[in-house]
């Protein structure tokens, strides 16, 4: 059986962006009230007494936008101090990074993924649902600061949407040539914006690889990470290119992760809600940690069966009630 030792924690469901593919303007999201969100202390107790004893040693902080949470640096510091945690990473939209990157690094964060869907200001603002002053420069500056501060590997996430940013795939890939940056192209999933998915569809990674191969050639690459990306490299480039092909490939048999939502739901599979545990309610009701640990252990045993249940994408709009921002994508 696959070893499940990677926990993705959503620190908050809110976000300062409204990405087209995640929570577009007008989506009725019913954001959580502050009191519904696990406090830093609750989160740390769950890590120390439930997840770490069960063998979870790799953690990613995500959201929503993790950097909108005011205690994010303290949370990073406390998790980084746990001797069992071998890897601590974060996924962010980068908007607050110029201010926060140094503090986060000093607190012990070493790996970061920053979303950057376009190099063209107008396209970027369209992708993130911004109608005001462009946010591109602010995010680009955040990426530069994260690089200077020493985050390594530094990964840039691109969700490829046909007709929005797919024409930029080679320009984005070119960022990996002179910089030790790792560009990751993610297939658009029918989660968060079903209408857009139905209208535009998605582009298989294989097609993107072909475009890049025709321009420069591609060799197999390697980069540190916990995910299912297929990693390549433009010959001679300093960085790499990763392709996350959750639509065209099934990597359920390799799945090594669980997700903890900001309101304390533990979810064994991104694509379906079977087996979820409401850890926050139980924790607040005073259920002993040892019992919570037993429930999570049982869920770990069920996970291989649950993994495959969500792959019927034809009906996903009807069965999927949470966006990536709510689950912790
Ligand atoms: N706010 C942070 C960010 O955008 O990087 C972290 C949370 S975001 C939900 C995490 C990841 O989910 C991002 O890399 C985003 O691109 C991805 N994501 C969200 N909705 C998606 C979708 N419908 N298809 C594929 N990826 C998606
Ligand atoms: Fe916010 Fe990230 Fe979702 Fe974009 S993908 S709306 S930045 S949570």
How do the helices and strands line up, and which of them pair or pack?
Blueprint: E1 6-10, H1 40-51, E2 58-62, H2 72-81, E3 87-92, H3 97-107, E4 111-115, H4 121-127, H5 136-149, E5 154-160, H6 169-178, E6 181-187, H7 194-200, H8 205-216, E7 219-220, E8 230-233, E9 240-244, E10 257-260, E11 265-267, E12 277-278, H9 279-284, H10 289-307, H11 316-319, H12 324-327
Parallel strand pairs: 1-2, 1-10, 2-3, 3-4, 4-5, 5-6, 6-9
Antiparallel strand pairs: 7-8, 8-9, 10-11, 11-12
Helix pairs in contact: 1-10, 2-3, 3-5
Low-confidence stretches: none
Total number of helices? 12
Q: What is the level-2 CATH architecture name? A: Alpha-Beta Barrel
Bound molecules: S-adenosylmethionine, iron/sulfur cluster
SSE sequence, one letter per element: EHEHEHEHHEHEHHEEEEEEHHHH
CATH superfamily grouping: Aldolase class I
Helix content: 25-40%
> What does the overall shape look like?
globular
Cα-to-Cα separation, first versus last residue: 24 Å
In total, the number of domains comes to 1
The proportion of residues in beta strands is 15-25%
Mean pLDDT comes to 92
The Cα radius of gyration reads 19 Å
> Which topology does CATH recognise?
TIM Barrel
Helix-and-strand structural type: alpha/beta
Q: How many β-strand runs?
A: 12
The largest sheet has its strands arranged as 7-8-9-6-5-4-3-2-1-10-11-12
Overview of this structure, please?
The chain is α/β, with parallel strands linked by helices and 329 residues long. The chain has a single domain, classed as TIM Barrel (Alpha-Beta Barrel), CATH 3.20.20.70. The protein is 35% helix and 17% strand. It contains 12 helices and 12 strands. The protein has helices spanning 40-51, 72-81, 97-107, 121-127, 136-149, 169-178, 194-200, 205-216, 279-284, 289-307, 316-319, 324-327, and strands spanning 6-10, 58-62, 87-92, 111-115, 154-160, 181-187, 219-220, 230-233, 240-244, 257-260, 265-267, 277-278. It has a 12-stranded mixed sheet. Strand 1 (6-10), helix 1 and strand 2 (58-62) form a beta-alpha-beta unit. Helix 1 (40-51) crosses helix 10, helix 2 runs parallel beside helix 3 (97-107) and helix 3 (97-107) runs parallel beside helix 5 (136-149). The chain is globular and about 60 Å long. The two termini are 24 Å apart. The mean pLDDT is 92. Bound molecules: S-adenosylmethionine and iron/sulfur cluster (SF4). The site of iron/sulfur cluster has 13 residues, from helix 12.
């Amino acid at each position: 059986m696959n070893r499940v030792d990677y926990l993705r924690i959503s620190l908050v469901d809110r976000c300062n962006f409204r990405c087209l593919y995640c929570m577009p303007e007008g989506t009725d999201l019913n954001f959580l009230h502050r009191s519904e969100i696990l406090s830093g202390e609750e989160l740390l107790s769950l890590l120390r007494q439930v997840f770490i004893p069960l063998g979870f040693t790799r953690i990613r902080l995500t959201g929503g936008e993790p950097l909108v949470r005011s205690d994010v640096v303290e949370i990073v510091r406390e998790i980084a101090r746990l001797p069992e945690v071998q890897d601590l990473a974060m996924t962010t939209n980068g908007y607050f990074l110029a201010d926060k990157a140094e503090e986060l690094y000093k607190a012990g964060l070493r790996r970061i993924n920053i979303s950057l869907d376009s190099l063209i200001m107008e396209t970027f603002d369209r992708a993130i649902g911004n109608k005001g002053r462009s946010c591109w420069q602010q995010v680009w500056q955040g990426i530069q600061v994260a690089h200077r501060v020493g985050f390594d590997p530094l990964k840039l996430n691109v969700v490829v949407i046909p007709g929005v940013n797919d024409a930029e795939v080679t320009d984005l890939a070119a960022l990996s040539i002179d910089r030790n940056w790792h560009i990751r192209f993610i297939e658009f999933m029918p989660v968060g914006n079903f209408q857009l998915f139905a209208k535009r569809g998605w582009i298989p990674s294989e097609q993107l690889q072909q475009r890049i191969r025709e321009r420069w050639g591609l060799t197999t690459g390697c980069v540190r990470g916990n995910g299912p990306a297929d990693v390549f490299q433009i010959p001679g480039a300093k960085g790499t290119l990763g392709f996350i092909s959750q639509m065209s490939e099934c990597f359920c048999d390799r799945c090594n992760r669980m997700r903890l939502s900001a309101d304390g739901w533990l979810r064994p599979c991104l694509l379906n809600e079977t087996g979820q545990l409401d850890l926050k309610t139980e924790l607040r009701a005073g259920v002993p940690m040892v019992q919570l640990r037993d429930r999570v252990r049982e869920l770990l045993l069920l996970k291989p069966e649950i993994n495959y249940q969500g792959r019927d994408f034809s009906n996903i709009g009807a069965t999927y009630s949470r966006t990536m921002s709510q689950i912790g994508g």
